[in-house]
Amino acid sequence: MNTQTDMLLVLEGIKKYYSVKEKMWAGKSSHLRAVDGVDLKIKRGTILGLVGESGCGKSTLSRLILRLEEPTAGRVYFEGQNILDYGKKDLRLLRRSMQIIFQDPYSSLNPRKTAAAIIEEPLIIHNVGDKTTRRNEVHRLMKEIGLLPEHGDRYPHEFSGGQRQRIGIARALALRPKFIIADEPISALDVSIQAQIINLLVELKEKFNLTYLFIAHDLAMIQHISDRIAVMYLGKIVEVMEKRSFAQKLLHPYTEALIAASPIPDPRRTKTRNILKGDIPSPITPPSGCVFHTRCPYKKPVCANDPPPLKMVEVGHQIACHFR
Reading across the β-sheet that carries 228-233, which strands appear in turn? Predict the structure, then answer.
């Protein structure tokens, strides 16, 4: 594969279809298209923000990247190597370079283990150091994420939501990975705590030269933390842009609607609401042509027949739309 050396992760045509039984006709099945032909590139040392409505396939895509699930089709290149060709041994080594921070800090931590044991677990699984070395590493990690070493003897229920997420972050850092997926890491936290976690993630990225895929619903937060932003709708990427291009004139109609629906912090300001009509189509029977045409205010006959490719409209800006 010929790819730029500064690209840490490259996705090509990633698909994930689930077989679904149709109740009305026994034995007949169809497919739910959770991820439907995604192409993405993430540059080393940067943060790619991924946004979209619930159910559009963001979390499924993250699991496919980590090979927690196997894709139906496509390729995932990490540091130039197609990791879908990896066997168990190579995949085990890959786990040290790719980690995930889960959405819910209340369910992602084992309630029967102490904080120190939770953070140490990846080190034990990958046979890193002896008991003393691991204990010292756990203490170092706890300091990095803003907890005291003596907190290591506490159980998850003894921590606040923000502290639990910090433990999850420390666990993800334990193997010193190059790439971390943050799957809506702040959505389950109080607003007052969200900024603290975001600032911590940014500090850790700079300190350890990490690369993030940051998944979230909050457009303001995505714009704040990301270097580039990808917008997903019904299993497809409809727009990829640099942060500076976000909320500017040249936008996919769906991105336009997302921005219009986001609240404005200043109560004295108003903006025109571009309210989308209709519900999100079923991923079992997605629309023909452009998947967004059933809700698009600018649709034309071609939109219902021909799926638009994700094309480059300017440097660093790709849009899947016939008329943008």
Answer: 98-101, 179-183, 211-215, 47-51, 228-233, 236-242, 317-319, 311-314
Q: How many CB atoms lie within 10 A of CB 180?
A: 24
Provide mean pLDDT across the span 192-218: 93
163 Ramachandran zone, left/alpha/beta (phi>0; psi -120 to 50): alpha
- Phi first, then psi, for residue 93 (nearest 5°) are -65, -35
34 in Cβ contact with 17 (< 8 Å):
yes
Least confident segment among 66-70, 124-128, 320-324: 320-324
Give the max Cα distance, the chain. Answer: 68
Give kind and range of the element (H or E) at residue 94.
Answer: helix 88-94
Q: What percent of the residues of the chain are helix, what percent strand, and what percent coil, each to the nearest 5?
A: 30, 25, 45
Cβ partners under 8 Å of residue 23, min gap 6: none
- Spatial separation of the C-alpha atoms in residues 245 and 316, rounded to whole Å: 9
Q: Collect all residues with Cβ–Cβ distance below 8 Å to 292 and sequence separation of at least 6.
A: 233, 234, 238, 252, 253, 254
Q: Which residue has the tokens 């041994």?
A: 89
DSSP string, 261-299: HSPPS-TT------PPPSPPPPSSSPPSSSTTTTT-TT-
Write out pLDDT tens, residues 262-302.
766 655 665 555 667 777 888 998 999 999 999 998 889 99
Structure tokens at 92: 């085990």
pTM: 0.90
Q: Please spell the DSSP secondary structure of 245-262, one letter per residue.
A: GTTSSS--HHHHHHHHHS
- Rounded Cα distance between 265 and 180, Å, is 30
Place of tokens 């046979």: 127
User: What dihedral angle (degrees, nearest 10) is formed by the CA atoms of 311, 15, 252, 296?
Assistant: 130
